[in-house]
Amino acid sequence: MKRGANAPLTRENPGLTGVVAGIRADAGAETVLTDNLVVAAILCGPDRKVVSDEHFVFFNQLATPDMSVQRIEEALGADRDQIEIDLHAVPDPVASIVFVMYVNDGLSRGRSLGRLRRCEIRVLDLATGAELIRSEDLAGALTAETGLALGELYRHQRDWKFRVLGDGYAEGILGLARDYGLTL
């Protein structure tokens, strides 16, 4: 799917109860960049701001308090990172879940996402492992950015949909924190 495109999930798959967001990022021989990539999920309210500090899932906070969204400790297959979402357990105040990636200390170390050879987000059926959605390669449009909003899982009426974002941030986690109301 291209940037900005969206697709229905639960309407097309009525038995879908959970999904896995898989992130693939390839920096080639740039191991310092690969070692410093952080993938996270931000659970937002209707105002597109994080519901609370406990609703930012990343390496220091592996799950939401209700366990509806959690990082998978060891990603399966070719995904670099995976985040599991129990669609029925996501609390009502959450309107969307935004999946982001940033370079930890990217601003101070001169590393950027523009060095990535490939970057994709995909959505899998949690029960079967079947791929439901895959973004286009987002790496080609990146230059000096150190943060990236990859995509979002969002409520639409009574269903869940997914949208590819591909929004880059030159300020990395600081820009993401500003836009999504995170406390760092």
UniProtKB/TrEMBL annotation:
<dbReference type="Pfam" id="PF02342">
    <property type="entry name" value="TerD"/>
</dbReference>
<comment type="similarity">
    <text>Belongs to the CAPAB/TerDEXZ family.</text>
</comment>
<protein>
    <submittedName>
        <fullName>Tellurium resistance protein TerD</fullName>
    </submittedName>
</protein>
<dbReference type="InterPro" id="IPR003325">
    <property type="entry name" value="TerD"/>
</dbReference>
<dbReference type="InterPro" id="IPR051324">
    <property type="entry name" value="Stress/Tellurium_Resist"/>
</dbReference>
<feature type="domain" description="TerD">
    <location>
        <begin position="1"/>
        <end position="180"/>
    </location>
</feature>
